[in-house]
């Protein structure tokens, strides 16, 4: 096939992109979106500061716009994200009582997942909970500080009850390199969850890479996590300067692991990227395919 989503589907995978609700009216943007991608991730619209800016009052308009549009076109949707230390409203980070926070967290997960029940293929239940550069420590956050290490397990258990059909993912960055201490910390958590029956179905590797692309052992990392009995997904791919080899290597790593179920790039055109200055995506500012597009398509097996 000649498009990313159609080609990925030939091996049962998806090829997705982050989508911003405010750009759906841009014809260049939406044309590429519908031609190339069969999964979408709302870039900001499902985050806590967008969905529950004030306690108990939920806003789903912008996220609904993305989900309804995608569903009508047969595109699948990843949910991003339920529990994250960033883009968190001040009323949550200001909570000082553990029981209050536990109730607030469980209510947030349950309400958002219920709203989208049956329409999300994978949810990033917890995002970026591990600290950088250390072996297995969680980063400070109101969740970690008040609820302790167990907040992640609590979030996953609540999520399973809310939408039993959705795949529940742990999502993080800088866990692509197998020997990194952070990778090992996440690996131990997933192994422990599987051993104790804590519900977890997938691990998301954000894959925000520098010009060198993925570490040489990225495929090993994906395979080792998959061997624990979870799916693995590349969830936020972008690569500084978008070198063709780096994109091809990333796609090949996923294609080589049967439980790598899909790839999402973090935006469509370079101008849509959170790192626009690095031109890290597959389409240029005018919406033309860049050389990295062809290398990604070829690595998927397309022409
Ligand atoms: O919506 C407000 C707007 O009302 C306001 O006028 C404007 C002024 O700054 O800000 C707008 O919010 C911005 C938001 O994107 C929506 O455009 C925020 O400032 C900006 O910080 C936010 O950036 C997002 C970032 O997450 C926040 O952490 C990026 O778009 C988004 O690509 C990025 O995505 C994250 C993933 O969720 C998690 N992994 C890392 C990745 C990159 O940082």
UniProtKB/TrEMBL annotation:
One of its GO terms (molecular function) is endo-1,4-beta-xylanase activity. It is found in: Secreted. Residues 1-299 form the GH10 domain. Keywords: Carbohydrate metabolism, Glycosidase, Hydrolase, Polysaccharide degradation, Secreted, Signal. The keyword Hydrolase applies. The active site is at residue 236. Its main location: secreted. It comes from the Bacteria. Transmembrane segments: none annotated. Belongs to the glycosyl hydrolase 10 (cellulase F) family. This is Beta-xylanase. It comes from Streptomyces umbrinus. The lineage of its organism: Bacteria, Bacillati, Actinomycetota, Actinomycetes, Kitasatosporales.
């Amino acid at each position: 096939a000649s498009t990313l989503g159609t080609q990925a589907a030939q091996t049962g995978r998806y090829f997705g992109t982050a989508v911003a609700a405010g750009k759906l009216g841009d014809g260049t943007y939406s044309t590429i979106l519908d031609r190339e991608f069969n999964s979408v991730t709302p870039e900001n619209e499902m985050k806590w500061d967008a969905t529950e800016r004030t306690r108990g009052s939920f806003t789903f308009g912008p996220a609904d716009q993305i989900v309804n549009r995608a569903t009508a076109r047969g595109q699948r949707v990843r949910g991003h994200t339920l529990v994250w230390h960033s883009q968190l409203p001040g009323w949550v980070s200001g909570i000082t009582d553990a029981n209050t926070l536990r109730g607030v967290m469980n209510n947030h997960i349950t309400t958002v997942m219920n709203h989208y029940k049956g329409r999300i293929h994978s949810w990033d239940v917890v995002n970026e909970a591990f600290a950088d550069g250390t072996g297995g420590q969680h980063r400070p956050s109101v969740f970690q500080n008040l609820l302790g290490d167990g907040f992640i397990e609590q979030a996953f258990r609540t999520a399973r009850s809310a939408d039993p059909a959705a795949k529940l993912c742990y999502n993080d960055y800088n866990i692509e390199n197998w020997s990194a201490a952070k990778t090992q910390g996440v690996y131990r958590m997933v192994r422990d969850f599987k051993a104790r029956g804590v519900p977890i179905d997938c691990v998301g590797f954000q894959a925000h890479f520098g010009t060198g692309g993925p570490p040489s052992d990225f495929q090993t990392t994906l395979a080792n996590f998959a061997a624990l009995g979870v799916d693995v997904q590349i969830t936020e791919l972008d690569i500084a300067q978008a070198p063709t080899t780096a994109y091809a290597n990333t796609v090949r790593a996923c294609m080589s692991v049967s439980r790598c179920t899909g790839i999402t790039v973090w935006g469509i055109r370079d101008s849509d990227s959170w790192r626009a200055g690095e031109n890290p995506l597959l389409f240029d500012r005018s919406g033309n395919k860049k050389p990295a597009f062809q290398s990604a398509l070829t690595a998927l097996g397309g022409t």
